[in-house]
Amino acid sequence: MSILVNKHTRVITQGITGKAGQFHTAMCRDYGNGRKCFVAGVNPRKAGKSFDGIPVFGTVAEARAETGATVSVIYVPPPFAAAAIDEAVDAGLELVVCITQGIPVRDMIRTRERMAGRRTLLLGPNGPGLITPDEIKIGIMPGHVFQRGRIGVVSRSGTLAYEVASQLGRFGIGQSTVVGVGGDAIGGLGCIDVMKMFNDDPRTDAVIMVGDTGGSDEESCAQWICEHMQKPVVGFVAGAVPGGGEGARQTLAVMKACGLHVTENPAEIGELLASLVAPDYLPFD
Fold this sequence. Notes:
Elements (H helix, E strand, L loop, with lengths): L10 E4 L4 H11 L4 H4 E5 L7 E2 L2 E4 L2 H8 L3 E4 L3 H13 L4 E4 L6 H11 L5 E3 L5 E4 L3 E4 L8 E8 L2 H13 L4 E6 L10 H10 L5 E6 L5 H12 L4 E5 L8 H12 L3 E2 L6 H9 L8
Helix pairs in contact: 4-5, 6-10, 7-8, 8-9
């Protein structure tokens, strides 16, 4: 099992005819069940065309109606990305993954207000996307560093998410789902939202949370973990290295006080997690 996406997910690419949309959609189609998962693209000026066999529709609503897709990934340029999110929300998709970075803050504030009370979840913007190893990847994560398993990863840093997966691989430990929540102040799902999903996922045994400087998401999540989490959690905050920012070290202190297993050395995250799950840990079967 996994959270948010799996091999049965059907995906629309908004911005499929742009350079980034074409490249990363091709990479995602070549990974796991991508050939079956990526079923449509959207460009209002190129409806009726196709990309690598994927039909291009004029609107998200049309693409959803024709393909049954429930998830969209967005590579639309920043001035138009918030409107692309709005369109996916109005079409009633379950999840929107926005990779675009540099969206004007005023646009995202308006979009978040529009999303209030709607069913659609938003991941990003300015994030790497997410991956359920060996099944599906949506976004820009390099698929080869991940392997299937039972450890959840939620990260505000895309690069550190890749590094964590690589470290776990040295111990033969795979991941259930890896989620990059993005680093923007105005975004969608936060660490606490993803942590709740991992807590409810019977195929996730432990979780790694990689935080970043700025904001209070990690500290709020740590408080929730203290009161509700039923699985071990390893925590790290970028910038909390010796000589790093005081804010990051304060966040790490809160994590530790709330019962997370913390490290100040990013090179030790995988080893720390392995020490918690071995020798009882059984690789995914």
